[in-house]
Protein backbone atom coordinates (compact mmCIF):
# COMPACT_ATOMS: atom_id res chain seq x y z
CA UNK A 1 0.00 0.00 0.00
CA UNK A 2 1.45 3.37 -1.00
CA UNK A 3 0.34 6.98 -0.69
CA UNK A 4 -0.36 9.98 -2.87
CA UNK A 5 2.37 12.39 -1.77
CA UNK A 6 2.37 15.95 -3.04
CA UNK A 7 5.80 17.55 -2.78
CA UNK A 8 6.23 21.32 -2.74
CA UNK A 9 9.19 22.12 -4.97
CA UNK A 10 9.79 25.73 -3.97
CA UNK A 11 9.72 28.87 -6.12
CA UNK A 12 11.68 27.68 -9.15
CA UNK A 13 15.37 27.15 -8.45
CA UNK A 14 15.66 23.36 -7.89
CA UNK A 15 18.26 24.02 -5.16
CA UNK A 16 15.43 25.44 -3.05
CA UNK A 17 13.47 22.19 -2.65
CA UNK A 18 13.62 20.38 0.70
CA UNK A 19 15.73 17.28 1.34
CA UNK A 20 12.50 15.33 1.92
CA UNK A 21 11.04 16.45 -1.40
CA UNK A 22 14.29 15.53 -3.14
CA UNK A 23 14.44 12.09 -1.52
CA UNK A 24 10.85 11.29 -2.53
CA UNK A 25 11.41 12.60 -6.03
CA UNK A 26 14.55 10.64 -6.72
CA UNK A 27 13.02 7.34 -5.58
CA UNK A 28 9.57 7.86 -7.12
CA UNK A 29 8.00 5.03 -9.15
CA UNK A 30 5.21 7.30 -10.52
CA UNK A 31 5.34 11.08 -10.90
CA UNK A 32 2.18 13.09 -11.70
CA UNK A 33 1.99 16.83 -12.40
CA UNK A 34 -0.47 19.40 -13.67
CA UNK A 35 0.17 21.25 -16.88
CA UNK A 36 -1.55 23.32 -19.51
CA UNK A 37 -2.14 21.25 -22.66
CA UNK A 38 0.91 21.33 -24.91
CA UNK A 39 3.22 22.83 -22.25
CA UNK A 40 5.88 21.14 -20.10
CA UNK A 41 4.55 22.76 -16.90
CA UNK A 42 6.56 24.68 -14.31
CA UNK A 43 6.58 21.92 -11.67
CA UNK A 44 7.95 19.43 -14.21
CA UNK A 45 10.51 21.97 -15.42
CA UNK A 46 11.89 22.41 -11.88
CA UNK A 47 12.67 18.67 -11.61
CA UNK A 48 14.20 18.31 -15.07
CA UNK A 49 17.22 15.98 -14.85
CA UNK A 50 16.35 14.89 -11.29
CA UNK A 51 13.74 12.17 -11.79
CA UNK A 52 14.65 8.47 -12.09
CA UNK A 53 14.86 7.24 -15.71
CA UNK A 54 12.50 4.35 -14.91
CA UNK A 55 9.83 6.55 -13.26
CA UNK A 56 6.44 6.65 -14.99
CA UNK A 57 5.30 10.21 -15.75
CA UNK A 58 1.63 11.13 -15.64
CA UNK A 59 0.95 14.64 -16.97
CA UNK A 60 -2.46 15.85 -15.79
CA UNK A 61 -3.56 18.31 -18.49
CA UNK A 62 -6.15 20.89 -17.46
CA UNK A 63 -9.22 20.73 -19.73
CA UNK A 64 -9.45 24.56 -19.49
CA UNK A 65 -7.27 27.29 -18.00
CA UNK A 66 -7.70 30.99 -18.78
CA UNK A 67 -9.91 30.56 -21.91
CA UNK A 68 -12.99 30.31 -19.66
CA UNK A 69 -13.50 32.86 -16.82
CA UNK A 70 -13.65 31.35 -13.29
CA UNK A 71 -17.08 32.92 -12.86
CA UNK A 72 -18.48 30.97 -15.86
CA UNK A 73 -20.27 27.77 -14.69
CA UNK A 74 -18.56 26.01 -17.64
CA UNK A 75 -15.24 26.41 -15.78
CA UNK A 76 -16.33 24.36 -12.75
CA UNK A 77 -18.24 21.96 -15.00
CA UNK A 78 -15.03 21.14 -16.88
CA UNK A 79 -12.71 20.99 -13.88
CA UNK A 80 -14.78 18.99 -11.37
CA UNK A 81 -14.82 15.76 -13.46
CA UNK A 82 -11.13 16.28 -14.29
CA UNK A 83 -10.21 16.36 -10.56
CA UNK A 84 -12.65 13.50 -9.85
CA UNK A 85 -11.11 11.19 -12.41
CA UNK A 86 -7.48 12.02 -11.50
CA UNK A 87 -8.12 11.53 -7.79
CA UNK A 88 -9.61 8.09 -8.58
CA UNK A 89 -6.65 7.16 -10.77
CA UNK A 90 -4.06 8.30 -8.20
CA UNK A 91 -5.89 6.48 -5.39
CA UNK A 92 -5.94 3.29 -7.46
CA UNK A 93 -2.19 3.51 -8.09
CA UNK A 94 -1.53 4.23 -4.40
CA UNK A 95 -2.90 0.75 -3.62
CA UNK A 96 0.24 -0.57 -5.37
CA UNK A 97 2.99 2.10 -5.03
CA UNK A 98 3.58 5.66 -3.88
CA UNK A 99 2.57 8.34 -6.38
CA UNK A 100 4.47 11.62 -6.18
CA UNK A 101 2.57 14.72 -7.29
CA UNK A 102 4.72 17.74 -8.14
CA UNK A 103 3.74 21.21 -7.04
CA UNK A 104 5.48 24.54 -7.62
CA UNK A 105 5.95 26.51 -4.38
CA UNK A 106 3.86 25.20 -1.47
CA UNK A 107 0.96 22.81 -2.23
CA UNK A 108 -1.45 24.40 0.28
CA UNK A 109 -0.96 27.94 -1.04
CA UNK A 110 -3.27 28.36 -4.07
CA UNK A 111 -2.06 24.99 -5.41
CA UNK A 112 -4.20 22.82 -7.72
CA UNK A 113 -3.32 19.76 -5.65
CA UNK A 114 -5.81 20.94 -3.02
CA UNK A 115 -8.61 19.85 -5.38
CA UNK A 116 -7.24 16.30 -5.37
CA UNK A 117 -6.44 16.41 -1.65
CA UNK A 118 -10.07 17.21 -0.81
CA UNK A 119 -11.24 14.23 -2.90
CA UNK A 120 -8.77 11.65 -1.54
CA UNK A 121 -9.24 9.63 1.68
CA UNK A 122 -7.26 11.30 4.51
CA UNK A 123 -5.11 8.23 5.22
CA UNK A 124 -4.01 7.94 1.62
CA UNK A 125 -2.58 11.41 1.12
CA UNK A 126 0.44 13.34 2.37
CA UNK A 127 1.81 16.82 1.67
CA UNK A 128 5.42 17.99 1.88
CA UNK A 129 5.59 21.78 2.30
CA UNK A 130 7.68 23.91 -0.02
CA UNK A 131 9.10 27.45 0.01
CA UNK A 132 6.28 29.55 -1.46
CA UNK A 133 6.89 31.63 -4.58
CA UNK A 134 6.43 34.85 -2.61
CA UNK A 135 9.42 34.06 -0.34
CA UNK A 136 11.59 33.59 -3.43
CA UNK A 137 10.25 36.92 -4.73
CA UNK A 138 10.79 39.09 -1.67
CA UNK A 139 14.28 37.62 -1.31
CA UNK A 140 14.90 38.63 -4.95
CA UNK A 141 14.17 42.28 -4.01
CA UNK A 142 16.94 42.14 -1.38
CA UNK A 143 14.66 43.63 1.30
CA UNK A 144 12.76 42.13 4.26
CA UNK A 145 9.01 41.95 3.74
CA UNK A 146 7.91 42.47 7.38
CA UNK A 147 9.47 44.10 10.47
CA UNK A 148 8.26 44.14 14.08
CA UNK A 149 4.46 44.29 14.19
CA UNK A 150 3.92 44.71 10.43
CA UNK A 151 0.80 43.05 9.09
CA UNK A 152 1.30 41.13 5.84
CA UNK A 153 -1.65 40.76 3.47
CA UNK A 154 -1.65 38.32 0.55
CA UNK A 155 -4.20 38.98 -2.20
CA UNK A 156 -4.93 37.58 -5.65
CA UNK A 157 -5.10 40.36 -8.26
CA UNK A 158 -8.31 38.76 -9.51
CA UNK A 159 -10.21 40.58 -6.70
CA UNK A 160 -12.34 43.61 -7.66
CA UNK A 161 -10.42 46.91 -7.87
CA UNK A 162 -12.15 48.43 -4.82
CA UNK A 163 -11.26 45.38 -2.73
CA UNK A 164 -7.61 45.50 -3.86
CA UNK A 165 -7.47 49.20 -2.93
CA UNK A 166 -9.02 48.57 0.49
CA UNK A 167 -6.63 45.73 1.29
CA UNK A 168 -3.61 47.76 0.12
CA UNK A 169 -4.68 50.69 2.30
CA UNK A 170 -5.27 48.54 5.39
CA UNK A 171 -1.97 46.65 5.47
CA UNK A 172 1.70 47.32 6.11
CA UNK A 173 3.21 44.80 3.73
CA UNK A 174 1.45 43.44 0.66
CA UNK A 175 1.90 40.46 -1.67
CA UNK A 176 -0.18 40.33 -4.86
CA UNK A 177 -0.36 37.02 -6.73
CA UNK A 178 -2.10 35.88 -9.95
CA UNK A 179 -1.59 39.21 -11.73
CA UNK A 180 -1.87 38.08 -15.37
CA UNK A 181 -4.39 40.28 -17.17
CA UNK A 182 -5.06 42.35 -14.04
CA UNK A 183 -1.97 44.57 -14.24
CA UNK A 184 -3.77 47.82 -15.19
CA UNK A 185 -6.39 47.25 -12.48
CA UNK A 186 -3.63 46.62 -9.93
CA UNK A 187 -1.81 49.84 -10.93
CA UNK A 188 -5.01 51.84 -10.42
CA UNK A 189 -5.84 50.19 -7.08
CA UNK A 190 -2.33 50.69 -5.64
CA UNK A 191 -2.15 54.28 -6.92
CA UNK A 192 -5.51 55.03 -5.24
CA UNK A 193 -4.22 53.45 -2.00
CA UNK A 194 -1.01 55.53 -2.18
CA UNK A 195 1.15 52.38 -2.43
CA UNK A 196 2.17 52.29 -6.12
CA UNK A 197 5.39 54.27 -5.66
CA UNK A 198 6.70 51.64 -3.20
CA UNK A 199 5.59 48.55 -5.11
CA UNK A 200 7.90 46.09 -6.90
CA UNK A 201 7.18 43.44 -9.50
CA UNK A 202 9.16 40.21 -9.45
CA UNK A 203 8.82 38.04 -12.54
CA UNK A 204 9.96 34.39 -12.48
CA UNK A 205 11.44 34.69 -8.98
CA UNK A 206 14.55 32.46 -8.43
CA UNK A 207 14.43 31.20 -12.03
CA UNK A 208 17.16 31.98 -14.60
CA UNK A 209 14.77 34.56 -16.16
CA UNK A 210 14.12 36.40 -12.86
CA UNK A 211 13.45 40.12 -13.26
CA UNK A 212 12.80 42.75 -10.55
CA UNK A 213 11.37 46.18 -11.43
CA UNK A 214 9.44 49.01 -9.78
CA UNK A 215 5.80 48.13 -10.51
CA UNK A 216 5.02 51.62 -11.82
CA UNK A 217 7.47 51.03 -14.73
CA UNK A 218 5.81 47.78 -15.85
CA UNK A 219 3.34 47.82 -18.72
CA UNK A 220 1.80 45.29 -21.11
CA UNK A 221 2.27 41.53 -20.95
CA UNK A 222 3.89 39.94 -17.92
CA UNK A 223 4.68 36.25 -17.36
CA UNK A 224 2.30 33.95 -15.42
CA UNK A 225 4.87 33.76 -12.61
CA UNK A 226 4.83 37.33 -11.34
CA UNK A 227 4.27 38.76 -7.86
CA UNK A 228 3.87 42.38 -6.80
CA UNK A 229 5.24 43.36 -3.38
CA UNK A 230 5.08 46.32 -1.05
CA UNK A 231 7.55 45.96 1.83
CA UNK A 232 6.56 46.73 5.42
CA UNK A 233 8.50 49.53 7.13
CA UNK A 234 7.65 48.61 10.74
CA UNK A 235 9.40 48.90 14.09
CA UNK A 236 13.20 48.78 13.88
CA UNK A 237 15.62 49.18 16.82
C1 LIG B 1 -1.69 29.10 -8.64
S1 LIG B 1 -0.60 30.11 -7.73
C2 LIG B 1 0.50 28.91 -7.06
C3 LIG B 1 1.27 29.39 -5.87
C4 LIG B 1 2.31 28.41 -5.36
N1 LIG B 1 1.69 27.20 -4.83
C5 LIG B 1 3.21 29.05 -4.29
O1 LIG B 1 3.37 28.47 -3.20
O2 LIG B 1 3.78 30.10 -4.58
C6 LIG B 1 0.35 30.82 -9.04
C7 LIG B 1 0.83 32.23 -8.70
O3 LIG B 1 1.91 32.16 -7.81
C8 LIG B 1 2.80 33.25 -8.01
N2 LIG B 1 4.17 32.69 -8.10
C9 LIG B 1 4.52 31.46 -7.65
N3 LIG B 1 5.84 31.28 -7.79
C10 LIG B 1 6.35 32.40 -8.32
C11 LIG B 1 7.68 32.80 -8.69
N4 LIG B 1 8.72 31.99 -8.55
N5 LIG B 1 7.84 34.04 -9.21
C12 LIG B 1 6.79 34.86 -9.37
N6 LIG B 1 5.52 34.53 -9.06
C13 LIG B 1 5.29 33.32 -8.52
C14 LIG B 1 2.32 33.99 -9.24
O4 LIG B 1 1.62 35.13 -8.81
C15 LIG B 1 1.39 32.99 -9.91
O5 LIG B 1 0.37 33.64 -10.63
UniProtKB/TrEMBL annotation:
Keyword annotations from UniProtKB, A to Z: Cobalamin biosynthesis, Methyltransferase, S-adenosyl-L-methionine, Transferase
Superkingdom field: Bacteria
Entry's Gene Ontology molecular function annotations: precorrin-2 C20-methyltransferase activity
Enzyme class: transferase
Pfam families xrefs: TP_methylase
Transmembrane segment boundaries: none
Single GO biological process annotation from the record: cobalamin biosynthetic process
Enzyme Commission no: 2.1.1.130
The keyword Cell division belongs to this UniProt entry's keyword annotation: no
InterPro entries (UniProt xref): 4pyrrol_Mease, 4pyrrol_Methylase_sf, 4pyrrole_Mease_sub1, 4pyrrole_Mease_sub2, CobI/CbiL, CobI/CbiL/CobIJ_dom
PANTHER family on file: COBALT-PRECORRIN-2 C(20)-METHYLTRANSFERASE
NCBIfam families in UniProt: cobI_cbiL
Family listed: Belongs to the precorrin methyltransferase family.
Name of the protein in question: Precorrin-2 C20-methyltransferase
Organism: Haematobacter massiliensis
Lineage of producing organism: Bacteria, Pseudomonadati, Pseudomonadota, Alphaproteobacteria, Rhodobacterales
Amino acid sequence: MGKVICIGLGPGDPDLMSLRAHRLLTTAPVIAYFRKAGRLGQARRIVDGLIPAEAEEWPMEYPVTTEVPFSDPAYGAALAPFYDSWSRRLAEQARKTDVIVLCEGDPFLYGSFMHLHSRLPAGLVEVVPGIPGMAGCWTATGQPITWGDDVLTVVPATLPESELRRRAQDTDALVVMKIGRNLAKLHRALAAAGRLADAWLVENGTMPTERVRPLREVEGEIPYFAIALVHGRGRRP
